[in-house]
Fold Anaerobic ribonucleoside-triphosphate reductase.
Amino acid sequence: MKIIKRSGSEVAFDINKIVHAIEGANNEAEPNERLTADQIAFAAHSVEWLCERAGHTVSVEEIQDMVENQIMALGRYDVARRYIIYRYVQSLKRTANTTDDRILSLIECNNEEVKQENSNKNPTVNSVQRDYMAGEVSKDLTMRMLLPQDVVKAHEEGIIHFHDSDYFAQHMHNCDLVNLEDMLQNGTVISGTMIERPHSFSTACNIATQIIAQVASCQYGGQSISLTHLAPFVDVSRQKIRRQVLDEINTLGLEASPDKVAEVVEGRLRDEIRRGVQTIQYQVVTLMTTNGQAPFVTVFMYLGEARTDAERHDLAMIIEEVLRQRYEGVKNEAGVWITPAFPKLIYVLEESNIHEDSPYFYLTKLAAKCAAKRMVPDYISEKKMRELKLSKGEQPGEGDCYTCMGCRSFLTPDRSGNGFDNIANAGNYEPGKPKYYGRFNQGVVTINLVDVACSSKGDEKKFWEIFDERLELCHRALRCRHERLLGTTSDAAPILWQ
């Protein structure tokens, strides 16, 4: 039988340690209050029996609670009091430095909590271990110094869950929607280097992957980009290719009909789109960010975002190529075609692609074929989004349709009506238009509804009372996240703020 130490590592259950701990408290008690040797053995074996039937690997804290209960069940309250004092003193000693054992256990790859925590991270890789080491320091600071003790206690008891405490010490946010349109159309700065507006679709895709990598290293959540922001560069490449084709024809002294020129241009353009999409696919799955994993990125495919019919046509070509390449997959080290973990894909169902006679129904058929084999894309209903995401007090059905962030959560509708003007200094700002790209969430706190239900013991009134109390705890914890980000300078993450 195994138990989990405070460091997170698994060790074999040792009943002798329980016996020694009880004996230590027993020797401190008054002689007439002490347990007999048989009672000590009975208490220790009772704890062992409870651990075997717990249905999970128990922690040291759970075992110590069991020991206290067994001593009190035997009526030796002075011994129990001494044992509680012993636990408290040991806790104070650990407070002085709570990270050494956990860090050493993850370096030696025997920290079970870390192994089970994140399937996207391999805890044996050096870069991941560095991230986990920093995370242990952040967790320690968060729980000892940065959060109110009632929030910490609720988190430790499982009443609420304060997510991502391993990043909370730094002034970082969670997930976001990348304003790729502004960064591509108006230029951006990456690692102190000015990146101007790209002059081809493939270059735009390459820059997009660099932006993805930079953003992933400056936050701890997922991110989403929209293919609509890449669509204008299809026509940029089309015009560039057309000029090249005409130059080649003139150089060779040939003549070609406009239809033939258009055919050659479109053929080369599709090759360009294929290369650009392939760049995004392979760059994303091979990039390693500072937190030791590939960027958690989602690609949004929404025809309704296109501003013109021509742009929508170009966007459809990109979507088609993305779906075809995802259907094919990527090769693993053995040369076998597999489903890549990233990027995630989101496909919007709308009037132009859900009916058999609609112009882009072929994309929906391709998406369904891809989903059957690769379990992506996920789907968003434009109709339902517009019913639910109301930003300006409009009627259901007239709301906004936008992508979720990489972590699958959605931004709240922008009800500010851009009343704060262009505080982000975005180059693609439109007065009065709800803002989604360029926004983020500050972090997550979860309420344990199952525990609320169990604690209410079937009393509905009591359920709502407990629910309200714990929601207030969640609110306090979320306020801590908000206040942690207040005053953050843009120099902390230039790619996000400048």
